Amino acid sequence: MSAQTPRRRPTGAVVVAPPPAAETRPPESGTPSPPSKTREWRPFLLDFFPLETPDQTRLHRFYDRLREGRLSTTRCRRDGSLHWPPRTACPTCRTEELEWVDLPEHGHIYAFSAVLAGAPLGLESDVPFAVGLIDLDGTPLRLFGRIEGRPWNELRIGAPVRTEAYDIGDGRMFYRFRTTE
Ligand SMILES: [Zn+2]
After folding, report:
1. pLDDT, tens digit (0-9, with 9 covering 90-100), for 70-119
2. Would you say residue 26 lies in a domain?
């Protein structure tokens, strides 16, 4: 199986990250001020999106490639197995001899649902929105993610989607899916 597909164009300018969170915090005082509700002040454990820099994750290349508009994952150089999510070691043979490969841009909706309430911190104003499982064409991979393009109640099982990289608003990158019909 080949995961080689035409690469997408970069999605646009790289957004410069905002100042470090510490600079947005209220000044120290005897009585702690309530945290601001900006995205920069999300408590780490409630932050829906992963940390992405080399000092934060060994999977930083996944995000570097997303910044180039490429959704990718790791493949084992020894047994050829394709992983999702990307790994630092092969779950089958445990080698760390992995390579990065681009994933196909197109897929189809296997299942979907809608978030109508209780969205993760920072996503509250996006409700309602659709999430789903996407079978990526030509791979054995089924990815979970947000589905954009159509209202959730107009989606259908089997509908075609494409992958999309986007800046979540603070300089970090993530992926989602967009309907193509
Ligand atoms: Zn392996």
Report:
1. 999 999 999 999 999 999 999 999 999 999 999 999 999 999 999 999 88
2. no
Residue 164 included in any domain: yes
Domain total in the chain: 2
Instruction: State phi, psi for 26 to the nearest 5 degrees.
Output: -65, 150
**Domain boundaries, position 71:** 54-103
Ligand 1 center to residue 86 CA distance, Å? 13
Task: Check: pTM over 0.85? Answer yes or no.
Answer: no
Distances from the Cα of 111 to the Cαs of 6, 119, 132, 145, 178, in angstroms? 26, 19, 5, 11, 14
Q: Distance between CA 16 and CA 76 in Å, rounded?
A: 33
Same domain, 125 and 76: no
Q: How far is the CA of 92 from the centre of ligand 1 (A)?
A: 5
How would you classify the pairing of strands 98-102 and 142-148?
unpaired
Whether residue 135 contacts residue 107, with contact meaning beta carbons closer than 8 Å, is answered with yes
The Å distance, Cα 77 to ligand 1 centre, comes to: 7
Same-domain check for residues 93 and 119: no
Residue ending a domain, among 78, 103, 128, is 103
